[in-house]
């Protein structure tokens, strides 16, 4: 099969070997990782990798991440001679980190959207590891959502977006981190965070003191092509608030944050909160955020109020996703009732 005919049958399996048999026969399979679920194909099979773009509706200029079982496989896809990259890999692989490195010429251009660099990641997740070992090939994989939607952190969320568009979902537990990996450009003299994520900047700077943050160079944003595209957006409008609202919302609304929102009980001046997710820690916030956005969409929520957090540690990645979601939903008008 050269390209997908939608809809197709999507199976859900608990067996990495079964998902591997799809990938080894030129198909795609979604799989769990500790960050979010990915949609994978054999990185050396250009036709299979094209199916990822088709299933997601992903712009062809947005490169994928090559997932490998351990750092010993990096040479198959990338030039891994950078000392900085080696130091970061030693410290953070396997884990929620992705390194952009010079690409090996034999990796098909579709994987990297024609770039001569390639993003490489070693996931820690046991099932992802089992899949990679069963395939014995690098797996090119973006997050397993329809393009523009929040990344899926459960196998059910993968189905919500891709049922009928991919042949296989490998089932696991909800992703522990809940936000995507930190992406670092290791191709320049001074490594730079292109996308904040599961490994905080503070931890990266302990290993590499000169590490540049994502906002230190506004021009650097364009270097990660994915950053240009609309991302992480639920259908609902997203509004960031520094404090939890003290009154009931005027519209059908959801709220996520570390403080509880108020409610003017019995009053008919407003709605009650349709969905509330109070999270105890920034880690729990990261873990729950994308799932909460999806639950709000399913519940017909019009506006999601998200409490801001300190942009330190995992909080930096949370604020990055919240700001993108707010920007992606700006201009969406409130449904007046
Ligand atoms: O945690 C994750 O990273 C998940 C799991 C499945 O591994 N994957 C993921 O993939 O989030 P995706 O495609 O949704 O995001 C990959 C990001 C995009 O922003 C993309 O532009 C960037 O990495 N990227 C990929 N290759 C790149 C390259 N050669 N140079 C710069 N940025 C690159
Ligand atoms: Mg993505």
Structure summary:
The chain is of the alpha/beta class and 337 residues long. 27% of the residues lie in helices and 17% in strands.
Describe this structure in words.
By secondary structure, this protein is α/β, with parallel strands linked by helices. It has 9 helices and 14 strands. It has helices spanning 16-24, 46-56, 83-92, 126-135, 155-162, 201-207, 225-228, 282-298, 314-329; strands spanning 11-13, 29-31, 38-42, 65-67, 97-102, 117-121, 139-141, 168-170, 182-185, 192-195, 237-241, 253-257, 275-278, 303-307. An 8-stranded mixed β-sheet has the order 2-3-7-4-6-5-9-10, sandwiched between helices. Strand 9 (182-185) and strand 10 (192-195) form a beta hairpin. Helix 1 packs across helix 4 and helix 8 packs parallel to helix 9. The radius of gyration is 20 Å and the shape is globular. The N and C termini lie far apart (48 Å). Residues 142-143, 151 line the site of magnesium ion.
